[in-house]
Amino acid sequence: MTCIFTVSAQENVFTKGTHIASVGIGLPIFRATYRSTIPPVSTSYEMGIFDFGRPGSIGVGGFVGFWGLKDKVLYKGEVSHRYFHTLIGARGAYHFTILDNWEVYAGAVLGLNIRSTKESGHADSRHTHLGFGYQAFAGTRYMFTPSLGAYAEFGYGISYGSIGITFRF
Asked: What domains can you pick out in the chain, each with its CATH number?
């Protein structure tokens, strides 16, 4: 009986009508010749639109993520290659509160990929490609206060993992 009353007394981190904005930094790209110029950074916003009660809630919103790198190749002289990747899209997630102020969630981002390359050296060139972009993720969030928390996400997309801060309003 105690377990049942404890579970029902928990405060959900994310419910219908909740607004959450997050800002984070991701794992950098590692490769022998790469020098990460801009680590993966992202910002997201979600609003709770549907409650399932204790099992969880669904939220939708937006996402913007960006990263860039510089690659120097010594092939017939020095060639510099710069690559920038931006993902802008709609975000949706299922949120499940585990304990007071702590939740897990999973979802996806669908949107627009913008990839830009610039090469300089023996032949200068610039290219920008637009295409369908996506991200799949799973994460956890802990709220330290009613309006401030921290999160960690893992998945595939702008970064394989990221950590950051969350604002709930």
From this structure: 21-163 (2.40.160)
